[in-house]
What we know:
Elements: H1 3-16
Amino acid sequence: SSVGEAHEDVQKAMRTLTPTHIVFNGRVGGLTGKNAMSSKVGETVLIVHSQANRDTRPHLIGGHGDYVWT
């Protein structure tokens, strides 16, 4: 796409307040690689997942949750 076409998309997103990207922890890759959250066996971890108007679902990888409230 051209610069003009991209500008139209940006204007539409700004006028309608419709986000075009969803990131976690404020940036792309914010929770992966060297930024991954980790814990040790037996530690209690609280994860607060609060979404605005998008259907985003966190997934536990390599473990399970004992208590989950939705």
